[in-house]
């Protein structure tokens, strides 16, 4: 993967998460906590972040007592972090002296504020994320962002009492708890997708996340033909005869073999579409009867 910065740049705020790696087979008792419980967990997060860079204590920390799947954080425009930032900006109170304040959100009468409710369709994964935003003086933010980008991936473990508090509060079984920037999370996800056989799709998703105004192509048979442009992914649909010329070439396979190959190809298209849509990248299937570069 490339080393582009997230679209919400570190110059204005630091976007990250506490990553909770669960024990295989772990069941989740709760995915969100009350407002009363949120403050205690946020204080532990603030303390931990300050141990990785003391200047973090001078910034405002906004976090939430809920955990999410990576696809809920890795979306164009970082909407979950942006919702957290906007809610924190409207929260009462202010800073005093050089100390940053802590703003923590939890449930009220069983409901999370705004759009912060974890999506039930993405529950049950082995990695859960508690997002945070650090905001404040631009120079301080820049220093903390630089320090976190260089250190958190390798040395960003949460303190033992923080991991234990998260485990007990959410009813999890946690193997590791570590802090990551969004850039770190992108790198980790790219590696996971490579292991899952989705490496060809990552450059498209990376463009949507880190450079949404740019264009990107996946044009590497036997993979589906895909173009990312204008904020959406367009997947080419070919008539069977054109698919055969592009993907089967001069193969002399019998009709049944070609039919199975075509079915696998369509399944791969659906898989790509599903992954992109989980990351909130719009997908359009475009019928290509002529020049695919024009039809897409």
Secondary-structure-based class equals alpha+beta
Helices, by number, come to 10
Number of domains: 2
What percentage of the residues does DSSP assign to strands (E)?
Answer: 15-25%
* Shape annotation: elongated
Rg, alpha carbons: 22 Å
Q: Can you give the mean pLDDT?
A: 90
Spell the H/E element sequence: EHEHHEEHHEHHEEEHHEH
Kindly report the spatial arrangement of strands forming the biggest sheet.
Answer: 3-2-4-1-5
Distance between the termini: 25 Å
Helix content: 40-55%
Give the number of DSSP strands: 9
Main sheet?
A: 5 strands, mixed
Q: Unreliable segments (pLDDT under 50, ≥5 consecutive)?
A: 1-5, 94-98
Question: What order do the helices and strands come in, and which of them pair?
Answer:
Blueprint (H helix, E strand, L loop, with lengths): L12 E10 L12 H18 L7 E5 L5 H4 L5 H12 L11 E4 L21 E9 L2 H18 L4 H11 L3 E8 H14 L6 H9 L5 E3 L7 E4 L2 E6 L2 H9 L6 H24 L4 E5 L4 H4 L1
Parallel strand pairs: 2-3, 8-9
Antiparallel strand pairs: 1-4, 1-5, 2-4, 6-7, 7-8
Features:
about 300 residues; alpha+beta; 2 domains; four-stranded mixed β-sheet; about 40% helix; disordered N terminus
Task: Characterize the structure shown.
With 296 residues, the protein is of the alpha+beta class. It has 2 domains: 13-195, no CATH class; 199-295, no CATH class. The chain has helices at 35-52, 70-73, 79-90, 138-155, 160-170, 182-195, 202-210, 240-248, 255-278, 292-295, and strands at residues 13-22, 60-64, 102-105, 127-135, 174-181, 216-218, 226-229, 232-237, 283-287. The strands form 2 sheets. It has a 5-stranded mixed sheet, sandwiched between helices. Strands 6-7-8-9 form a 4-stranded mixed sheet, covered by helices on one side. α1 runs antiparallel to α5. It is elongated and about 70 Å long. The two termini are 25 Å apart. Mean pLDDT is 90; it is low at 1-5 and 94-98.
């Amino acid at each position: 993967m490339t080393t582009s910065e997230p679209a919400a740049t570190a110059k204005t705020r630091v976007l990250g998460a506490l990553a909770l790696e669960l024990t295989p087979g772990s069941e989740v008792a709760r995915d969100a906590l009350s407002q009363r419980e949120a403050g205690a967990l946020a204080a532990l997060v603030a303390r931990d972040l300050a141990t990785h860079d003391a200047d973090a204590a001078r910034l405002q920390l906004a976090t939430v007592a809920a955990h999410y799947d990576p696809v809920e954080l890795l979306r164009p425009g970082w909407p979950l972090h942006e919702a957290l930032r906007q809610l924190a900006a409207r929260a009462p109170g202010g800073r005093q002296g050089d100390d940053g304040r802590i703003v923590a959100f939890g449930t009220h009468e069983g409901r999370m504020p705004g759009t912060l409710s974890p999506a039930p369709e993405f529950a049950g994964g082995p990695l859960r994320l508690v997002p945070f935003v650090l905001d404040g003086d631009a120079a301080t933010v820049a220093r903390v962002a630089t320090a976190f980008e260089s250190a958190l991936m390798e040395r960003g473990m949460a303190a033992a009492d923080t991991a234990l508090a998260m485990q007990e509060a959410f009813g999890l079984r946690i193997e590791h708890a570590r802090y990551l920037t969004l850039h770190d999370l992108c790198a980790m996800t790219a590696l996971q997708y490579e292991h899952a056989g989705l490496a060809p799709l990552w450059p498209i998703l990376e463009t949507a996340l880190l450079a949404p105004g740019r264009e990107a192509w996946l044009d590497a048979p036997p993979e589906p033909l895909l173009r990312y442009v204008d904020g959406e992914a367009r997947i080419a649909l070919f008539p069977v005869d054109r698919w055969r010329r592009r993907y089967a070439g001069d193969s002399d396979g019998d009709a049944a073999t070609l039919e199975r190959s075509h079915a696998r190809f369509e399944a791969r298209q659906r898989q790509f579409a599903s992954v992109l849509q989980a990351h909130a990248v719009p997908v359009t299937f475009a019928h290509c009867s002529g020049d695919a570069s024009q039809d897409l």
